Automatic annotation (TrEMBL):
This is Bacterial sugar transferase domain-containing protein. It comes from Bathymodiolus thermophilus thioautotrophic gill symbiont. The keyword Nucleotidyltransferase does not apply. Belongs to the bacterial sugar transferase family. Keywords: Membrane, Transmembrane, Transmembrane helix. It comes from the Bacteria. InterPro entries: Bact_transf (IPR003362).
């Protein structure tokens, strides 16, 4: 009940504060090709239910017809204004609407596409027992997901080998330790990460150590070494 109340209050506050910026960006997206500035992204939510996640459109219209789910920074489907949207995470602001609607929470494992959740291991399926969120540990650790996938011949394969194994582990750690206090801390450090990601990573590493996370998870979360192919938890 407290978590839901916080979700509603902070979502309303966030949308109110950013409304002028959103309106400007929405106009600029529409102006470039006269197509809808929104992309209703199908995602898998709690208990394996499908919902439409509201995002500002950062790609050309009908970009998902390519069949590629993961997006690198150099993806030629991204529009000029789309690069700015992705850089400053503006498409995550509109997801506050999903929070108001109850599809998502402010904090929780990031929602995934059905192609990915269909391949979840039994351990990863625990991620679908809670509402997905706008941010969590992995949202900060892998905020540069597009850069990680840049230049990869198969972005989807690279995502599943380099990012998914650790993203899932961090999501499971959050679920095991979640609380209203941790949620507020993650929201705060998500904002700080936009200004100084190293400071946010330092905080995350401290929290993971306190929570007894595996050494490998802690090391990867430092993001000081190049990511190596791994397997998802439960494989």
């Amino acid at each position: 009940m407290i978590r839901r109340l916080l979700d509603i209050l902070i979502a309303l506050l966030g949308l109110s504060i950013t409304s002028s910026i959103l309106l400007l960006v929405i106009f600029l997206i529409w102006k470039q090709d006269k197509k809808s500035p929104f992309y209703m992204a199908p995602r898998v939510g709690r208990n394996n239910t499908i919902f439409r996640m509201v995002k500002l459109r950062s790609m050309v219209s009908n970009a998902d017809s390519s069949g590629v789910d993961s997006t690198s920074t150099n993806d030629n489907r991204i529009t000029p204004i789309g690069h700015k949207i992705r850089k400053y995470k503006l498409d995550e602001i509109t997801q506050l609407w999903n929070v108001l609607m109850g599809d998502m929470s402010l904090v929780g494992p990031r929602p995934n596409v059905k192609n990915e959740t269909d391949s979840y291991t039994p351990v990863e399926e625990k991620l679908l027992l809670v509402k997905p969120g706008i941010t969590d540990f992995s949202s900060i650790v892998f905020s540069d997901e597009g850069d990680i996938l840049e230049g990869k011949e198969d972005p989807d394969l690279a995502y599943n080998q380099l990012i998914r194994p650790w993203k899932s582990r961090l999501g499971l750690i959050y679920i095991e330790n979640r609380s209203s206090l941790l949620d507020l801390q993650l929201i705060f450090w998500t904002v700080i990460a936009i200004i100084s990601k190293p400071k946010a990573l330092k905080w995350i590493v401290k929290q993971l150590i306190k929570m007894g996370a595996d050494t490998d998870v802690v090391t990867v979360s430092m993001r000081k070494a190049e990511l190596q192919p791994s397997i998802p938890p439960g494989s």
